Amino acid sequence: MLDIKFIRENLELCKQAAVNKNRVVDWDALLTLDEKRRELIGKAEVLRAERNEVSRTRTDEGVARGKAIKDELKAIDENLRQAEEQFAAAMLTIPNVPDASVPVGKDETGNVEVKKWGEPTKFDFAPKDHIDLAKSLDLIDFERGAKVGGSRAYFLKNEAAQLEVALMFYTLMKLSGKGYTPLIAPSLAKEFAFFGVGQFPWGREEVYALPKDDVYLSGTAEVPVTAYYSDEMLSEKDLPKKFVAFSPCFRREAGSYGKDTRGVYRLHQFNKIEQVIISTAETNNSLTLHEELLANSEGILQDLKLPYRVLLMCTGDMGEPQVKKYDIETWMPGRNAYGETMSDSFMGDFQARRLKLRYKAKDGAVKFCHTLNNTAVASPRILVAILENYQQADGTILIPDVLRPLMGKNVISR
RNA sequence: GGAGAGGUCGCAUAGUGGCCUAGUGCAGCGGUUUACUAAACCGCCAUAUCGCAAGAUAUCGUGGGUUCAAAUCCCACCCUCUCCGCCA
Known about the structure:
With about 425 residues, the chain is an alpha+beta fold. The protein has two domains: about 25-90, Helix Hairpins (Orthogonal Bundle), CATH 1.10.287.40; about 110-410, Bira Bifunctional Protein, Domain 2 (BirA Bifunctional Protein, domain 2, 2-Layer Sandwich), CATH 3.30.930. The chain is built from 13 helices and 18 strands. It has helices at about 5-10, 10-20, 25-55, 60-90, 130-135, 140-150, 160-175, 190-195, 220-225, 285-305, 350-355, 380-390, 405, and strands spanning about 110-115, 140, 155, 180-185, 190, 210, 215, 235, 240-250, 270-280, 310, 325-330, 335-345, 360, 365-370, 370-380, 395-400, 410. The strands form five sheets. Strands 1-11-12-13-16-10-9-4 form an eight-stranded mixed sheet. Strands 5-7-6 form a three-stranded antiparallel sheet. The chain has a three-stranded mixed sheet with strand order 8-14-15, with no helix packed on it. Helix 3 (about 25-55) runs antiparallel to helix 4 (about 60-90). It is elongated. The termini are far apart. About 40% of the residues are buried. The structure holds one RNA strand of 88 nucleotides.
């Protein structure tokens, strides 16, 4: 959410930001509601001031006037309540303004590759995709997954199951060692948290709802962890707060029914470790932290010796809440392409405003925090890259060096 | 699922219709003193909205209601904690 004062004072900037993000906003409706509500607030306050004064007199005339004011106020308050409600709903639909360093573009074709690490793996044999590899080595059971859990469900089996746990453990320990507080976060979260991070109102279709219990299944630990300090007042001296959070993630994948239906690239349920930072409202510092999150994720991929590239997302391919976003794509031989494995976002105070996540600055001023997050590792998608890049001519799969101590073996074979 | 207790400024607490313009303590900020630190003392210090400002208004879990007037009385709901039951 933006500050309405900021919108009033920077209307053209906000309008252009929405256009660049391909979002349609009814600015006139928003500003009309804003004016209406301010006018009603003014009227109500004048009446309340008079009522307060009059009721102190405790005279018959005062009581009579008080009664009259009471009726007037009732009508105004009802109108004000409606206006505030509509205004608040409209405010929730305003997208955030991208940073000046973000390229303007319509869609993914406008993204800019800013870094490439390693080269796409070359094979002196015909490589298999992860589906064939998984079947021949009995690593993933798609058929029984679908039988039991429906479309896009799966069982990780044997070394695939061990590999996922090893990856999660490796990542959690590595980032804990860098001062990130480890968390295992709830996957169930209340509606306010989804509005808070900006998944609602836009992404409702993507989220599993459990209406009977009034909770939702989150698709990322960003939701619970960013909301961790919601409604709280932090101290500047305690910032930034850095978290590395494990959670099972759930996504409906509505609108992508025909996409990536084979394999474990796009799933309804997976496990992920997410980095979340809550920091001060200093954009330059936040941009530095944004790079730190990127470097952390790159470090994981470099440890795993997986070729990847970093894309700076253009305005048209970033979400409503983001100020700046990088995607990391990892080489996946089965796709003969890079596939997204991590997503590194800086939100400014957009989420903090929605979550009432504030801090007291050293000078005593109360400010909204800045929030950032980035994937540390998401599995099984990362297994696609590991299985495919590490396959050998004899059909076996080498295990990345850093995971061998955890796996107790060097190679997957049957 | 059942029973009970409770939700007040960053934290802790006081507050049972008008003296609440929400008090006090702690923390925080500034200062005096000090070789330094601590202590002591002095001052400042909730948030939001509207307003150029002076200031006004609102906020005591949320929403209704009673009243000229509600943190305070009434109703509903939400949340937290404790205990019992069930249970990985």
